[in-house]
Amino acid sequence: MPISLPAPCWQYDPAMSARYQIRHLTRYVYAHAAASGRHLAHLTPRATDWQRVESHTLRVAPPPTENDPPQTDYFGNTVRRWAIGAPHRELEVEAVSVVAIDSQAERWSAAGAWEDALAPRAADLVEFTLPSPYVPLIPAAADYARPSFSAARPLDEALHDVARRMRTDFVFDPAATTIATPIVDVLRRRRGVCQDFAHCLLSALRGLGFAARYMSGYVLDESGARGGAASHAWVAVHCPTVGWIGCDPTNGKLADLEFVTLGWGRDFGDVTPLRGIVLSHGAQQLSVSVEFRRL
User: Is the pTM of this model over 0.85?
Assistant: First the structure.
């Protein structure tokens, strides 16, 4: 299921740009043969004003018996859908992409005071201020974030500060939660994974009045980043003067050159990397690996 994209014309600056190859492999092994399955994937990196997709391929085994062309979802992300109508004991999905990233740090530094980001906003931003299925607005979350937003503090500094605090205060523990764990429990126990921390920060930021969206993608783990061996999640906050500012509470930093974006939505449910329905019974084993290397 290849998607071939032409390489863009652009000027590469190693100080302000980076190129990466990402190989994302997902494998399901079923205890009993699945009679059929239908699947949906958000595994195609998104083209943006800071990210260029030079190439992307998606391989599915066994080969689909139905294969829809690439589509665009409500949020503008690329979606792939397929069905496998023959019995199968395994499903393997491999996405390989090459992307180029430009730094946004200089632009973000001109964001101005965080209060300016609370000004009246366009209608298409309002949904990112509201609660969503995985992100209720919890007063305790806003209370946690509020000390980072002192009067007239630049927005990028405030976001960096709350991300650093969460990196220190929250323990990265893959065994502590599932996707069904309420974020009120994550806030209380302060343990979880990147999706949990992103959902907590979204609740905090929306509770303070910001337009904030859930970002799905990958983070480079050359410096020991948490969440680097799998898909990753962070948030982005809208600023009227500079656009969206990425913020990663898992690693305590703004989400710039080390981050590759697959897509965005209100929360994890809008941009799940891979989901589907399989007609089978018994247990299944899931393994996921991400190889992320600098070019």
Answer: yes
Give helix 155-169 / helix 194-208 axis angle, nearest 10°.
140
Distance CA 25, CA 255 (A): 23
Cα–Cα distance between 122 and 120 in angstroms, integer? 7
Smallest Cα–Cα separation from 276: which of 2, 31, 43?
A: 43
The C-alpha atoms of residue 245 and residue 50 are separated, in whole angstroms, by 12
Q: Which two tokens stand for residue 87?
A: 């019995």
The DSSP H or E segment spanning 262 is: strand 259-265
Domains of the chain: 2-102+272-294 (2.60.40.2250), 105-270 (3.10.620.30)
CA separation for the pair 144, 150 (Å, rounded): 13
Query: Measuring CA to CA, how many Å separate 79 from each of 106, 248, 271, 283?
Result: 32, 24, 9, 27
Each residue's pLDDT tens digit, 257-266: 999 999 999 9
Provide the total of helices (H) and of strands (E) in the chain, helices listed first: 6, 17
| CA–CA dist 64, 35 (Å, integer) | 13
Model confidence pLDDT, tens digit, residues 65-114 = 999 999 999 999 999 999 999 999 999 999 999 999 999 999 999 999 99
158 contacts 146 by C-beta, under 8 angstroms: no
Burial environment of residue 55 by CB neighbours within 10 A (0 to 12, 13 to 18, 19 or more):
middle
> What pairing do the DSSP bridges indicate for beta strands 36-41 and 78-84?
antiparallel
Q: Distance of alpha carbon 143 from its chain centroid, rounded? A: 24
Cβ neighbors of 270 (< 8 A, separation 6 or more) are 73, 74, 75, 132, 214, 264
